[in-house]
Structures
1.
Amino acid sequence: MAKIKHHNFLNTVHEVFTDAKQAGVLHLYAGGKSFSGRTIEIEGRELYHFGTTGYLGLEQDTRLKTAAMNAIEKYGTQFPLSKSYISNPLYKELESHISTMYGHPIVITKNSTLGHIGVIPSAVDDDDVIILDHQVHWSVQNAAKMLKTRSVPIEMIRHNHLEMLEDKIKKYRHSKRHIWYMADGIYSMYGDNAPVKELMELSEKYPQLHFYFDDVHGMSWTGKNGTGHILKQLKELPENVLLFGTLSKTFGASGAVLACSNPKLYDKIKTFGGPLTFSAQLEPASVAAAIASAQIHLSNEIYELQHELRERIDYFNACLSATELPLIDQNESPVFYIGTGMPKTGYNFVNRLMREGYYVNLGIFPAVPVKNTGVRITISRHNQKEEIKGLVDAMEHHFPLTLEETGTNSERVFHAFKLEHNTQRKLQTSSELTIEVLETIEQVDKTQWNHFMGGQGVYDWEGLQFLEKTFQGNSQKEHNWSFRYVIIKDPGGNPIFMTFLTLSLWKDDMLAQAEISAAIEQERKEDPYHLSSMVLSLGCLFTEGNHLYWDKSHELGGAVRDGLLELLEKMEHQLGAKMTVLRDFETNTSWHEILYGNGFLRVQMPNSCSVELAGIDSIKSYIEQLSSRNRRHFRKDIKPFLELTQSKTISKANVFQIQEFKRLFGEVQKRNLGLNTFSFPDKLFEEMNENELWEFIVLTPKEKPNQILGAMFCYTNQETVYVPAFVGMEYDLLETYATYRQLLYRTIERAIALKLPKIDFGMTASFEKRKLGAMVHEKYAYLQTDDNFILELIGVMEGQH
């Protein structure tokens, strides 16, 4: 497969959010002339509000509202000066109260996002390293990435994976001054928490270990003076911990707060801190509301409020325990997550609950993996027990209906979240369909396969026989692929669908930028299988093209598509794959909507190229029908070099030639880090040499006929298409002989000589192929992963190397 374009993360998020917006569950507007916190008006209907992050309901407290209004009357709507010059008259009182709450010096920031941007670059030195929990909030990750410009290494570990954390600590303990681990206190989607006790034990073992905790979702509803989950666990704030809390969310006002017990570090952050200097300060109304809230936090009333919320949380947990709803993490936080698995199931469930009168949040990519879509429910003091019970009853009623309506089942949801589930269900496909899953092309009817799947790429019946022989029985695991052939038939035995899939080992950075792969390859010198995963893929890494036949006009065509996606999910589980990749789709494929709804992300691939040769009887007539620009390209950049070389087509190479083919192909492959794949088995070229459908177009200098400059390795499919699958080249002489351009030209010349009507030119170097008359087609792949870790890890590494 050719080099994949680096897909734009923001474009992917845009597509996901647009899909959710169109489903009516995202980017909504609240209505009404007032807001109580208990209910929220959406499109003219009052819904019980289970989506707030104001868990104690202080944003509706009369004392906070009165303080805010009085401050506006006295000091105006804002105090338009940088805090570096002068703070508004209320700031000093607020800082005094918050400092008393924490028992340590604090820094007030405009919000947590700007706070992280101000604090992290100030706290982390150039000779430090950052390790991110892969579920730490985006605002922390974004601020940490700013340090790439100072060459501070940024690593990432799987969520709460302490063994992986310790491995990273060992990697840097002798080379870095401080090792910063950055995590959330309470995670905003699942409501789970950082393992504080175990982390502190790790810091005793490794004194370089420092912590940066974002505890904004742990604030107010727990801990002494409402200072949150982290400080509740720590009791005292050690000097190796920076703790971020919030004055918004549960606190009821606006802004964020950093607590620091290290005097030197505090002074360093407070003195400058980027946005702390250059951003506007909190508005007087926000400061006054925060003072009123801080006074509540410093009184015994905070514990009464916490107790009232705790009763509601416990009641919700008790109600849920009597159901079989997939609660993803059982904990004591006010954040709950009910898994739905597929996005379309999440949309359906949210809409059903809103129609029942309950507003909940949708959890969706990138906050969670696409196939881990679900409903985030938050409990606040505004919620009464009768509506809490009503919500649980509504979920229990609608959840199975949602699953049925969106073509899934509870087993698939539980498996997506790695939860235990007792029932085992069969595929829910139409009883009118026959699904065959075969393990070798030898079990497939040759005539039928070639009728529906032949005529493109190296995957007609004979091509797959060759691939099975080549990629099985090898000593290295990356060279052994498992093949599966899926044929779905109607009651009359007529195929509606055909495809083949492979299970093989891919490098996780296969689609990453070349410089990232180059850095990872350094680590693979010690561990060859570092960052690699088993992938279930439509087609294989040796083939390109439309890897499936689907009769979409058939009355059972829709049922076939639904059945296939459920089958793929089961195959992924059974075969132990970490990712499913469906590839080589056209831009406006009719599969797009259903793939998105089933948890696949779209990634743009390089443009595919093909050459139509019908009616062309000579290379001369082919060149003459090119555009004037392309004819100039031929005359200037190819024709002069033809005189320097000779080209011959070899169907049976000798031992020396085979070794040269291997070497030259290796030269191309090792340079193609933009598509970083494992090597092919050593026997590949011997198998090509023994197969009558393969031949080699070989380019040599006229003065040295035994020196191979380059070779194109070509397959003839069904006498209908010529497939130049791979190329090998001597890079030191590439420009001297215009080797690649010559091989493209000679490939067209050979296909014309064979009277083949088409060339499948693949995805490499579409710019060069276009100049020789190739048609270019946009292609996309759809990826479904177990989690976001690899995507986020690659994102963290971008720009570091």
2.
Amino acid sequence: MSQLLDKETLKKMIRENVKTLYRKTLEAASAEEVYQAAVFAIRDVITDKWMKTHDEYYEKDVKVVYYLSMEFLMGRFFGNSLINLEMYDEVKEVLEELGIDYNMVEDAEPDPGLGNGGLGRLAACFLDSLSTLQLPAYGCGIRYHYGIFEQKIENGYQVEAPDNWLENGDPWGIKRNEYAVEVKFGGNVRAVPKGNGEYRFVQENYQSVIAVPYDYPVIGYGNNTVNTLRLWEARAKNKLDLKFFNEGNYQKAAEEELLASTMTDVLYPADEHIQGKELRLRQQYFFISATVQRVVERFKKHHTNFHELPDKVAFQLNDTHPTVAVAELMRVLVDENDVPWDDAWEITRKVCAYTNHTIMAEALEKWPMELFSRLLPRIYQIVEEINRRYCLELQAKYGMDPEKLRRMAIIADGQIRMAYLAIVGSHSVNGVAALHTEILKHQELKDFYELYPEKFNNKTNGITQRRWLLHANHGLAGLISETIGDGWITELTELEKLLPYAEDENFRRRFMEIKKANKVALAKYIKETKGIDINPDSIFDIQVKRLHEYKRQLLNVLHIIGLYNQLKMNPGMDMVPRTFIFGAKAAAGYRRAKLIIKLINAVADVVNNDPTIEGKIKVVFMENYRVSLAERLIPAADVSEQISTAGKEASGTGNMKFMLNGALTVGTMDGANVEIYEEVGKDNIFIFGMSAEEVQAKYHDHYDPWFIYNMNQEVRMALTSLIDGTFDQNTDLFRELYDALLNGCGGRADEYFVLEDYADYARAQWDIDKAYRDQTKWAKMAIVNVAKSGKFSSDRTIRQYAEEIWDLKPLHIED
């Protein structure tokens, strides 16, 4: 255990903390109370390292990267912190000696939904890697009171409930009132003469909120580095207007407080209405302005020359949400520190770097000028000036080409295009998988690649093996360390040493025994939480990710319907029993995605309760998909569903987590699947469907889904069962899905080529069935996948960011 805490001291601290915090004995305390007491005990160790880390950063005046993200899906802190402190086994022993079940304590911690999916989880993996690699860093985001939402399933439908993760306090966060800053919205801008022929711009008549930071420790594995996740919370400048209160106008008295608390209540408010759009823009500017102001203040403690800022600070914009940082840094430099525009622009571009996470046009944010200029009047002026100078640059390069100017301008057609501002205002633009970056360069951002080829680069995403193998899959992690040593924990390419063991009968047997134990544990959990009996000897086929049409959960469920129809016609059909497991949240306003969830649950109700198919198929929808649930599901998976339409998924990171845990991928050649295929070879992955190039060509061809409907009986029967009452007495309930696939329903028919790829998907699924029957072959394939997953560590990704984009050097913190 840590030099600072022996077992007896830790026991004493936990007992004392329970008494101090709850006025109880340990024996009378709930799991949640023991959890809080244990956190405060280990925080002693963490805080010493944390203070030392930041003292060293400050004294040595090192360069720091600020990872700016609307989302941080951290998962539970407790278990991961113990693993990185190398205290996990000892704390488990201490709790057991105190008569406490460690798992109950870990499960008592809320799993905060401060992210939507892959984007937020990637940010969390990156923070873990930054600390493990001893790189000076802050994650900067928002301390949402309720996160995204807690998903409940009622009568098969998704219902959103507040995710009240702060209900029982927040033992990990430390409030830093001394770093609070003011953030201004609305009002007007007045030009004040400086007396030298220049003007200073001053915002007046504004509303403002106070941004208060809460700091969370991010612990490096096996070292003394503790970086910081800084989440900003909004507080009213004036808590209560007593004048209005005393007049009995209580609502008006608390107006300012309500405005402030609303700002950091919920991640991604529904934005189908203007109020939602405005709140989302407020959130983005709020955490960016707070961060930029604080960073510049810190820089000024050591420096007077702003040209040194890029040597000390890097901003990484995690997708388009933080793009307003480009204009805010300009505002702070020009308006508040008298830096000349051209100098400020050069500094800003050197500081900022942009990661593009999407090929989907609707996710490249655009803001209506009316809203943007009203809410952020000075920022709007700055963006207008950036755009004016940039358009002059375009004219100088391309001449007067109105169509090209309109296509590339930051402001056009009444909208501000945030992705374009990010590209123009940054020195680096990266995609997140090799295929994704090529699509950006040659399709989506082709004009910008021609203009700034030197800015574009690829950084294939990664995941942290500390959480996704060492913490999530103790059995497999133990077998690997016993076989090849534990070097893989910090250097994942060490897993390559497992390759010869694919031919070792004893290793294969133990490997498959661990997989079976994980499946049995998951089956038990599903029985307890869902009341569904599943067969641990069936193939566990899992698709867990955000619900979006391009991710094609609909293809998966249509294939299940196809299999069910075949079993109804031929009950003796020879197939390995299969358990299909889904987990997904749909955005609150995304109606069709929510209808797909209803369909999955409707299919589950029919299939799971039909005795004639003899349990050959089971379907389970796990509600409220989150990090802690993923840690149960992924180690138990046999098959990983990565079936997005080729050319639509930027990278994916779930595919990497499944691979690392010995699941085999069934997928399209999309995102990082392409690189997984390159690592494992064609015999250790199940690839199907059109390529990205074929998808592009299909968009330009005449594509008629009715042709497939007419020619493929399995497809025709599956689609018919959507509207013939098989899955709901209301035959109109799923008609929208039927129409969207065949007729378009307000858009292109079968926009994501579900029907086009169906036959090849069904073929790949039978290939899986056949391969699984040969358990020796399956075990070899699974072991090869684990052994070849070394490339997909976020440590590798972060090293590349640090060396190629940030010019960031590690700093070793001594004991």
